[in-house]
Amino acid sequence: MSLEHFDKEIFDLTNKELQRQCDHLEMIASENFTLPEVMEVMGSILTNKYAEGYPGKRYYGGCEFVDEIENIAIERCKKLFNCQYANVQPNSGSQANQGVYMALLQPGDKILGMDLSHGGHLTHGAKVSSSGKVYESFFYGVELDGRINYEKVRQIAHIVKPKMIVCGASAYARVIDFAKFREIADEVGAYLFADIAHIAGLVVGGVHPSPFPHAHVVSSTTHKTLRGPRGGIIMTNDEEIAKKINSAIFPGIQGGPLMHVIAAKAVGFKFNLSDEWKNYAKQVVDNAKALAQTLMKRNYKLVSDGTDNHLVLMSFLDREFSGKDADIALGNAGITANKNTVPGEKRSPFITSGLRLGTPALTARGFKEQQIQLVGEKIADVLDDIDNTALQAKIKEELKELAHQFIIYTKALF
Ligand code: PLP
User: Fold this and answer.
1) pLDDT by residue (tens digit) across 241-250?
2) CA distance 285 to 198
3) Distance between CA atoms of 38 and 28, rounded to whole angstroms?
4) Percent of the chain with pLDDT over 70
5) Strand pairing of 136-140 and 110-114?
6) Ligand 1 touching residue 30 (CB < 6 A)
7) Nearest CA to ligand 1 atom 10
């Protein structure tokens, strides 16, 4: 029986979501469109299999084929990131990070990460996250110019003396200097942990420096710039660390691995290893730069005055309206983005003075600089006249027409 006949309610809602994804311009920097082939294997019979443990060392029988699948995923992941050990089992980026901490730290150990309100992630020590409850967390941030000041990080590290320094971010538009972070980590005897969840697709596409050989351990999600299934991975070149990571993921924090997702990770990695991938990664960055230029020409201030990667952070510190207002107005105009805090923030985290915009999803759809510039102009038009709901409705129709020229999925998928 088809889903349509078995569960019409969920079928209809899935189709509404498909329509939403087709009609709107997706500019949330952490979202993307995965391949139909990735979705095909994710929706396969592999979901039926229990395979606690690792290839060749499982707690269940009948694992000969899933062992092969997981080994292929591991080998492709190692090749992609040019490293010696990979764990492809984390169910998400957050669980990958939890696994890294559990492998290398004891409860109460000190970690030094990037402040959430400066672009870091919850799992980098925020007090509401287990990373900030189980470990004693300290933070570095960005300067008013929106950039990390590595001298300041060094000073904080020397005072705090953390067991681990976490680098990588959720909302940082500039290159991360992994070599500099490693220098600082070595000075204070800390592990360097690079969380490249946001930039992994750019790293493997050769348009952002790699965290290897600088970081002791690296984590990522597979669903953001990598365009694979929703999930996490952990990589290292150190055999001892690799063993500890494996034990921390299973049996430390997870049970049976999601074999359908691990197979989908392997399919995604195959795409990431192709020549086509390099073109995609370069286009993501070229598009973000084009967006930044367009917005700046229209007198909008960007944190760090531009971008090196897949995202731009608009700052409304000099405007009457907030990040939340901008988020709502652009949503009405068919552009999905998210409000964000900015350096020197004066509003609450629920209101904010910034907006984060990313180009990975529109680039996956086939948008090039020409279309991105047009989108940038429309964003400025909406924000210039932020209370004009009639204009928002008009732009929504125009952008829908543009979006439909770049069909990403068809109804036939469901
Ligand atoms: N690390 C960073 C830097 C992120 O931006 C995110 C997600 O936004 C994560 C980790 C967590 O990933 P997940 O949502 O898969 O748990």
Assistant:
1) 999 999 999 9
2) 13
3) 21
4) 99
5) parallel
6) yes
7) 93
pTM comes to: 0.97
> Which of 157, 72, 74, 81 lies closest to 114 in space, CA to CA?
157
Taking the centre of ligand 1 as the mean of its atom positions, its distance from the CA of residue 163, in whole angstroms, is 22
SS (H, E, C) 193-219: EEECCCCHHHHHCCCCCCCCCCCCEEE
**Domains along the sequence of the chain with CATH:** 39-272 (3.40.640.10), 280-406 (3.90.1150.10)
Tens of pLDDT, residue by residue over 259-279, are 999 999 999 999 999 999 999
Distance CA 118, CA 371 (A): 30
C-alpha to C-alpha distances, 218 to 39, 138, 317, 402, nearest whole angstrom: 26, 20, 34, 38
Task: Kindly state the helix (H) or strand (E) to which residue 137 belongs, with its residue range.
Answer: strand 136-140
Q: Which residues are catalytic?
A: 50, 52, 195, 221, 224, 230
| Ligand 1 within 6 A of CB of 211 | no
Cα 94 to ligand 1 centroid, rounded to whole Å? 6
Is there a cis peptide before residue 257, judged by omega within 30 degrees of 0?
no
In one-letter notation, the amino acid at residue 396 is K
DSSP 309: S
Planar angle of CA 175, 249, 236, nearest 5 degrees: 40
Q: Is 177 exposed, middle or buried (0-12, 13-18, 19+ CB in 10 A)?
A: middle
Q: Give nearest CA residue, ligand 1 atom 9.
A: 93
φ, ψ at 114 (rounded to 5°)? -85, 135
- Bridge partners of 166, per DSSP, are 193
Residue 72 alpha carbon to ligand 1 centre in Å? 24
Query: Does residue 246's CB lie within 6 angstroms of at least one atom of ligand 1?
Result: no
Residues 182-223: tens digit of each pLDDT: 999 999 999 999 999 999 999 999 999 999 999 999 999 999
* 161-170 confidence digits (pLDDT tens): 999 999 999 9
Ligand 1 midpoint to CA 121 (Å): 7
d(CA 268, CA 37): 8
**Residues 202, 397: Cα–Cα separation, whole Å:** 32
